[in-house]
User: Fold Cupin from Pseudoduganella plicata.
Amino acid sequence: MRQPSLALAAVFLFVCGSASAQAESPIKRTIITRGDVSVPGREAVVAQVEIAPGALAGRHTHPGDEISYFLGGEGELLIDGQPPRRMKAGEAFVIPAGVVHAARNPGTEPARLVGVYIVEKGQPLASPAK
Assistant:
């Protein structure tokens, strides 16, 4: 009788641990809206993006262009092949499709952005870079 209980407890701890790890992700994208654009097979995705203080959003790409506007906090944009770019509220950037990049929050408050992505339909919004 105890074996099933132990197995159930192990599954419960695994699921709770996974949910907890997901909740503590250094980057959080909350999709506000998405809709078709004039380019066949593409859609616009508008998201609120938050990077935790001191966190690094690892190297990744998007299946389309990213256009982002900084609302608050500080950020450092790390685009492969370019020097780091320090960002603050009121500044914006554009990253073409497939370009490998990362972001770091060197500050003590969350970095907050609005991101607009013009991406291929049916693809993940972001994928880890190799």
